[in-house]
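Handoff note, outgoing to incoming analyst
You'll be picking up this chain. Sequence as last confirmed:
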Amino acid sequence: MARRRQIFEGKAKVIFEGPEPGTLVQYFKDDSTALSDRKSGVITGKGVLNNRISEYLMTRLGEVGIPTHFVRRLNMREQLIRQVEIIPLDVIVRNIAAGSISKRLGIPEGTNLPRSVVEFRFKADDRDNPMVSEEHITAFGWATPQELDEIMALSLRINDFLSGLFVGVGIRLVDFKLEYGRHYNANDELTILLADEISPDSCRLWDVSGTDTMDKGQIHRDMSGVAEAYQEVAQRLGILPESGPRDIQGPKVMQ
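Most recent structure output, in case you need it:
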């Protein structure tokens, strides 16, 4: 097992030093959390499924001109990605009322929104990722007005493409979270790249026939059903892993 220097560990992924300058290795864990981390557990095989689903969606987005940090999948749990300077924002795109927007605004869950709504949250887990406005973002220097315009445009393009892709396999894309990063090439030219992942961990997915969840919202009801929900998404997209979901060891960490 290769020894790699660990850069960062989050709730669902571990980031390791990459094999070449300017690259990182993104390892998908089986850990699952919900309800602001008040409910958690390990879902065997979830990381394998998320790795394949995110690979597929990032690849498809790249084919239609969305710049992403994804380079290639390395194995069942790992991806090679470009190193970026993460912009400290969660970008939430909403198509149907559900979750926090229903609670905040009193809109019944399942209501189609008049148009897609984009919200921003400051990435601060210790403060429950508070919602922020464009004024906050530019005033505190988290992103420039030009970067925000590009992020908004990219997010709406991504939403249009993914909504069509998912409805084609009988899934409604209710809402989802995106992250972006700054990437500098050899000439020090800046590009905004889609980063992190796109998977049932970061999307709210409902079957088109109703509100049956096919994402980590299943954790709210029954932890044991999460793997089956994620597997159903992978099956509909036609990208089940080679041997089916299973647990494998991650790389050893250099101290």
